[in-house]
Design goal:
Number of strands: 18
Mean pLDDT: 96
Number of domains: 2
GO molecular function, one term: oxidoreductase activity
Distance between the termini: 26 Å
Protein name: Galactitol-1-phosphate 5-dehydrogenase
CATH superfamily of the largest domain: Medium-chain alcohol dehydrogenases, catalytic domain
CATH topology of the largest domain: Quinone Oxidoreductase, Chain A, domain 1
Low-confidence stretches: none
Largest sheet: 8 strands, mixed
Order of helices and strands: EEEHEEEHEEEHEHEHEHEHEHEHEHEE
Cofactor: Zn(2+)
CATH architecture of the largest domain: Alpha-Beta Complex
Number of helices: 10
Family: Belongs to the zinc-containing alcohol dehydrogenase family.
CATH class of the largest domain: Alpha Beta
Pfam family, one: ADH_zinc_N
Length: about 350
């Protein structure tokens, strides 16, 4: 089959790769679309630590084309969403329901070949039948579940004011979920006018451009000096990761969804805010809980199926897989601004 194959850090090419073999408890999925996760580009371009050659990609959807002999709940041509996280199901965290904290998990698209390919082997326990949906857009179910996992975990209350620091795909999806959860006011923060315009279109009440304003001062002014009930960090920037501590109100909550890319040295005022204001800090990793794959996944699927969340506004680019090298050169060179990029297997690519 054809795949986006990584041969070394920074070396990813459209090439032949062995077809997947279906085990007794597996299904083979014909990939319809696979998204580029915010974690994919730094791993592929700066520090790949998984088997080589490999096939990245963990945000994908497709149709079932082969079924293992022990698998009962799927049939050929079923449209499925894939959960790429494979828990061990035997460690203490798995047994107590904290599946995202599994001590022995493996990941499709890292430890084993993933969705930058025509076909992918998936344990049958890691797929959910979707029914009659747009199977290309279904590739966004994984980031949608990641966002909802954080929103569920931070426990918003009806009428809350929330600041979302970072308006990429995860931040925008979190914005949608916070609105669905009944928060009263959402303040969106980013350094991109395009991202802020997208956040406004998705329902943000106020927008703060961190390049043009002092983010902390702007949010405190908007909240009459009190701060927000919830500060949710989704950018993975050491700047916003610190700012969250300064914009949460006394006894407020801070959620961290963005991945750290560098060391963070907190100023005295920022660190003191944690204990002087008795802040609650929560980190959120992946999107899984019991019963696997968990409420974040199942609620995301339901919201996609019934149209509560429309994924179209989040997709900025679609490319054929044959453009995989060009796409990562575009990302590395910051040649274009983008939101969610999809590799779509049966369509011509370009801006969505």
């Amino acid at each position: 089959m054809k795949a986006g194959v990584i041969y070394a850090t920074g070396d990813i090419r459209y090439a032949d790769f062995p077809d997947p073999s279906c085990g007794a408890d597996d299904i083979i999925v014909k990939v319809a679309a696979c998204g580029i996760c915010g974690s994919d580009s730094p791993r592929i371009l700066s520090g790949w630590k998984y088997p080589l050659p490999g096939v990245p990609g963990h945000e994908f959807s497709g149709t079932v084309v082969e079924i293992g002999k022990n698998v009962k709940n799927f049939k050929a041509e079923d449209k499925v969403a894939v959960q790429p996280f494979i828990p061990c199901c035997s460690c203490d965290n798995c047994r107590t329901g904290y599946v995202s904290m599994c001590d022995g998990a493996q990941m499709i698209g890292a430890d084993m070949p993933g969705g930058y390919a025509e076909y992918c082997r998936v344990p049958a326990t890691n797929a959910v039948v979707l029914g009659d949906v747009n199977i290309t857009e279904a590739a966004l179910l994984e980031p949608c579940a990641v966002s909802l996992y954080g929103v569920l975990g931070i426990e918003p209350v009806l009428g809350d004011t929330v600041a979302i620091l970072g308006c990429g795909t995860i931040g925008q999806l979190a914005l949608k979920w916070f609105r669905i959860a009944g928060v009263r006011r959402i303040i969106a923060v980013d350094i991109s006018p395009t991202k802020l315009a997208e956040a406004r279109a998705l329902g943000a009440d106020e927008c703060v451009n961190g390049l043009e304003q002092d983010t902390v001062e702007a949010i405190l002014e908007l909240t009459h000096g009190k701060g927000v009930d919830i500060a949710m960090e989704t950018a993975g920037s050491k700047i916003t990761q610190e700012q969250c501590l300064l914009v949460a109100k006394k006894r407020g909550k801070v959620g961290f969804l963005g991945i750290a890319r560098s060391d963070i040295l907190l100023r005295e005022k920022s660190f003191e805010s944690i204990f002087r204001h008795e802040l609650t800090l929560r980190g959120f990793w992946n999107s899984y809980s019991a019963p696997f794959p968990g409420p974040a996944w199942m609620k995301s699927i339901e919201a996609f199926q019934d149209g509560t969340i429309d994924f179209k506004p989040f997709i900025s680019h679609k490319f054929p897989l044959s453009k995989v090298t060009d796409v990562f050169e575009m990302i590395q060179g910051r040649k274009e601004e983008y939101n969610k990029i999809l590799f779509v297997m049966d369509e011509e690519g370009g801006k969505a």
